[in-house]
Amino acid sequence: MNAASTCVFVDGVAFWSPRLPGWDVASAVLAGAIAAPPGEAHRPAPALLPAAERRRAPDTVALAIEVASRACAAAALAPGELASVFATTHGDLAITDYLCAILLDSPLHTSPTRFHNSVHNAAAGYWCIATGCHAPYTTVSAAEHSFAAGLLEALVQVASQRRPALFVAYDTAASGPLSTLVSSSGLLGVGLVLSPERGLGTVAEVRWSAESRDPARITEALPQNVPLVAGNAIAACLPFFEALAGRPGPVTLAAGPRLALQLVIQ
Amino acid sequence: MRALPLAVSAVTVTSALGAGVAAHAAALRERRGGLRRNDFTATPLETWIGRIAELESASVPDSLARLDCRNNRLAWMALRQDGFLDAVAAARARHGSGRIAVLVGTSTASIGATEEAYRAIAATGAVPPSLREPVLHVAHSLGRFVQDALQLDGVCTTVATACSSSAKVFAQAERYIRAGCADAAIVGGVDTLCGSVLFGFNSLELVSPEPCRPFDVARNGISIGEAGGFALLERDGRGPWMLGYGESSDAHHMSSPHPEGLGARLALRDALASSGLEAIDIGYINLHGTASTRNDEVEAAAVSEIFPASLHAGSTKGWTGHALGAAGFLEAAISLEALRSGRTPGMLNTTSLDAACGPQIRLDPAPLPRPFVLSSSFGFGGSNCVLAFGSERRP
Hints:
Chain A has 266 residues and is α+β, with helices and mostly antiparallel strands. Chain A has helices at 23-30, 51-56, 59-74, 93-105, 112-116, 122-131, 146-161, 226-229, 238-244, and strands at residues 6-16, 83-87, 137-141, 165-171, 188-195, 204-212, 250-256, 259-265.
């Protein structure tokens, strides 16, 4: 596709999975500096949400808001002004399971709250409500390529609008009969604040280009890291975060069946 | 920031009004609506729907049989109208298959297939082979189907921001082309009727037992419809032109609009600014106008505050119903038809305008006063998008 590469700057990074519940521990483990600590966190408890909402929030919303707020805090940016891109393969699998199941038995008793939380952009909508953000968000999906296609969307927004953007990607576990139709397990959420200019808090520079070809040579995650997020639908994000954690070299991700996203992280 | 104007080189749309642009033009002109009593759900639900009857017997290409479902059948039906496949083939030859982005919007994609799988599992304990393709059960079922059907190899995403989805794809296309990631884009939207959406909107007490009446003083809810359509956008061409867009977030509530229409106003103002237009330049706005009590009240107030009395504005959901994730595209296509025909459609089913409506909101069709139009789409989760189109490249 476009041969010329474009440069953006990473000003904030966030990561959450039950084995790696935060970028501090995740970056140390992904870089091979320490072994993954034993035990698993249950689910994130984003401090941004009032206690009652924190308890009520679906896993997707808690996960997305946790990594979104951590990425903004790491970038020392007030989230209320930031345009954002949210990527998720499945949206809220638990609610999809609920809706399909209740249709079988008692469609007239569908829960209105669960219905409006079923939209693919629920987490993005709650994020804007929680932060008072009137800047636009875009929620994208690209099946097994959702992380890289969403990252490309965010990179294009930063490059074309010349303003910072928040990027969030997340997926949760399939449950009920849905788990026989699609495959995703555990919780995994990641967040990035991307900027067109180098700032005082910049942690990495990313040169990127997207090329239409058979992306056979995509970067593999390190074998010891794969089991830490195995089975989650956005686990393909791992090589990018290994590079941010300090593993040198270019990263190539599949952003589509015939589209390679090439990233050089410094 | 000023948007890069993009030529709308080809457009096609299919809804309860028929297959293709000409069917829509005729139905709008002849004031012939597409709504009928709900005959879609097994459990009775007293409402009217914009149903495309032929979908049950429609098909997808043999090579894409694994992605066969109501939503992708509609996508394929729409792609075959208006010479669209030929226009894409010519664009593929011009630009190369890797340089044409596929950017499509939907709210529920093929969740109807997931509902069907649940029925099968409950009845037989097994998933039938026709429903085993995992991509059928994700939002990107639509994007994957369209990209493969059109034999394209570049950027491809499915936007799912509820009822603004297939408006936002026009904004995406402008960004990808301006950033140099594509030379052209197929934008579009497809949403089809399914149980979860009909009973979901029913649970929110938002569906009307009658054909919807946008902006009517006695309006009592929405009618849900299905639609699919696509456009080819390029840097150069004869036009008409996508001149700009405005996007915003309400930051207020998941299923109710901001009470002062803050997000809607921001999106309307940004659409004007990014296209280099003033409020007085606009001849017609195809409003979101769902016929829900709150949306229409808030939207009418925003329009009367921003635009002069000479504007013609209205909602065409009385003809088609609310096509949800496909509404942004369907109504962009109707706005483009207003530019082409030089006529505004007026409104259907609405007889007595709400007092919140200013002189801009009109019941009757009329000559289009100026060759620039807007199309508004506002979605659950407070996602707003307004598109600006013009017959000419520059105001």
